[in-house]
Amino acid sequence: MTTATTPITNWTTDRLADLTGKRYLITGGNSGVGYEAAVHLRRANADVFIASRSATKGSAAVTALNEIPGSGNVQLIRLDLASLESVRAANDSIREHTDGLDGIVNNAGIMQTPQQQTTDGFELQFGTNHLGHFYLNHLTFDLVAARSGRVVPVSSIAHRSAPGIKFDDPMFAKGYSPMTAYSQSKLANLMYGLELARRLDAAGSDVIAVNAHPGYSATNLQSTGPTGFFKVIYKVSNSLMAQKPSLGALPEVLAVAGDEATNGAYYGPTGFGGTRGPVGSADISKPALDEAAAARLWSLSEELLDITWNIV
Q1: Cα–Cα dist 89/76, whole Å
Q2: How far apart are the C-alpha atoms of 250 and 129, rounded to whole Å?
Q3: 240 burial class (0-12, 13-18, 19+ CB within 10 angstroms)?
């Protein structure tokens, strides 16, 4: 697998090339880090597709982005990652607007929700954060390949607290913990991204998979998922410790559009345990580097989604 010979340090958007004519899809691009990533790409003149579960919030984001200087187009794609039917509909909608994508940022996510299921019966966090994106990337892969583009799985520093994927109970039917389920889903994001990079490299593909995480950024993620004590804690820590979403978006922008980004890399803030600070090469936990487990996760994802995704 091809990776950077020199780690990237202190990356900022002033290193971006002019992105005129480039087209990017950002899931959850209507708010938070995803919206700010769209802002950075918009300022570099890229075309941006905002994938949003809410038509109202998505339309408002498109309107706001169009007011930011930039020559690219901004369009809304309806997408609910907790519904495979919605993912299929989003794929159809994307194809009505373009025959190629330069990158997909798997930004959308939910965190520490009470035990719930997606419309297709998957544990909500694993189903949304991992399986929804895996399915979307599978369906749209030919669009990315058409432009020798990039797939950007978005993980979290929370992946470090997951000891591994619970292959015997990936949906936490027994002993559900909101934080443990969230950590597993973010570990799955990174394991999938690293496995995708290996498969792309083995196939000699022009597509690359570049992983990213936003550190600890103040967004709706901390207020819409957690409940009770955790919701109170995040309200305080967001104001005291979290960085702005515009800074949390930098690793995603580097991964999807930076000339320096390489296949299989993982970028994020490098200060204060990865929560904030200069953007560069980020630390990967030992479980995330388990290639056998990653291959098993890929197979499990195919089985659960009833698909076969061969990288050729």
Answers
A1: 13
A2: 20
A3: exposed
Cβ proximity of 252 and 211 under 8 Å: no
CB contact at 8 A, 193 and 213: no
Selected catalytic residue, list 35, 182, 216, 267: 182
Interval 220-232: pLDDT, tens: 554 455 455 444 4
Which residues of the chain carry a pLDDT beneath 50? 1-5, 222-223, 226, 229-232, 234-240
pLDDT value of position 218: 57
pLDDT in tens, 177-212: 999 999 999 999 999 999 999 999 999 999 999 999
Q: Is 28 left (phi over 0), alpha (psi -120 to 50) or beta?
A: left
Beta strand 266-271 pairing with 150-153: unpaired
pTM: 0.92
Torsion of CA 86, 89, 93, 99, to 10 degrees: 110
Spatial contact of 112 and 172, defined as CB atoms under 8 Å apart: no
Cα–Cα distance measured from residue 109 to residue 273, given in angstroms and rounded to the nearest whole number: 21
Beta pairing class for 211-212 and 103-106: unpaired
182 is catalytic: yes
Domain 18-305: top CATH class: alpha beta
306 backbone φψ class: left, alpha, beta (φ>0; ψ -120 to 50): left
**CA dihedral over 186, 190, 193, 195, signed as positive or negative:** negative
Give 146-170 as a 3 state SS string.
HCCCEEEEECCHHHHHCCCCCCCCC
The structure tokens 């083995």 sit at 202
